[in-house]
Amino acid sequence: xxxxxxxxxxxxxxxxxxxxxxxxxxxxxxxxxxxxxxxxxxxxxxxxxxxxxxxxxxxxxxxxxxxxxxxxxxxxxxxxxxxxxxxxxxxxxxxxxxxxxxxxxxxxxxxxxxxxxxxxxxxxxxxxxxxxxxxxxxxxxxxxxxxxxxxxxxxxxxxxxxxxxxxxxxxxxxxxxxxxxxxxxxxxxxxxxxxxxxxxxxxxxxxxxxxxxxxxxxxxxxxxxxxxxxxxxxxxxxxxxxxxxxxxxxxxxxxxxxxxxxxxxxxxxxxxxxxxxxxxxxxxxxxxxxxxxxxxxxxxxxxxxxxxxxxxxxxxxxxxxxxxxxxxxxxxxxxxxxxxxxxxxxxxxxxxxxxxxxxxxxxxxx
Length: 366
Hints:
The chain has helices at about 5-15, 25-35, 50-60, 70-80, 95-105, 115-120, 155-165, 185-200, 225-240, 255, 290-295; strands spanning about 20, 40-45, 65, 85-90, 110, 130, 170-175, 210, 245-250, 260-270, 275-280, 310-315, 325-330, 340, 360-365. The relative contact order is 0.16. It is of the alpha/beta class. α7 (about 155-165) links the parallel β6 (about 130) and β7. The protein has an eight-stranded parallel sheet with strand order 4-3-2-9-8-7-6-5. Strands 1, 10, 11, 12, 13, 14 and 15 form a seven-stranded mixed sheet that branches. The longest helix has 19 residues, at about 185-200.
């Protein structure tokens, strides 16, 4: 955590709002998860935060990378990250994206439907694929199987169709959903995978790779189960059922979320129908996009004391949609006060816009 005294010195030097990136925290998060999943290769999901210094930190711990676009590849090229450390996980791809990834040197791709197969046939000598299955998880803030993944019962047919076309199918992939707090969802998914591995073997199609996706949760405003406990459940199952298989994962949030802290300033204040409104220099169109797209709430820290009163926190744009918090309790604030928001590193600046021609929040390494 950063002190308000230190936060003010950063604002004096760099302006407000400001995102503070700790590369040490990135490395610590990667190391913690690796310790919890010792037999799993961790491919950082670049989409959660593609900041080049954050990616450099992952590189410095010899990490792997999960890519989903040509733009993400371009950033990794700047860092001279070898393609052998990367996989391309977007199930839906343009032909030019496939070629660009192959030219870079990426070999492993993911599909989840038969209509992707024709795109891959011309490149089949140069790539391998995993078939992604759907694991419905409506209790997650973002149920990723709503958009992607073959039904487990349909997976074998898809595998056979790809195999018939000469495409090398190496295994199965799944994602239990973003910010998943139920470790047994992984076991549900792994049960499906085990069955599909066996059914494919009966067709003389043998797998050597399993991708357990991401979804490893972070504590924002509520306590969650310790990550080592959740991972122990996954490890026990993997040890019993996938001993001779390479297992990979795609953590994004767990690596990036706690690596960034936002400092924002109160730039306006009004009283509307008896309620104080505070207008910040950051909002839903910038770093707080996670509230819109990621169903995420963030802890608010203030140095002001006094009786907490119901208030509204709004962003800097002219859009009335740009309201960060309604009916939240805070001591009375004044123009010029600063607020600190920890754990702002995941799905925040990654999806920020420049609506109203307001520049995305500056990021500095601390």
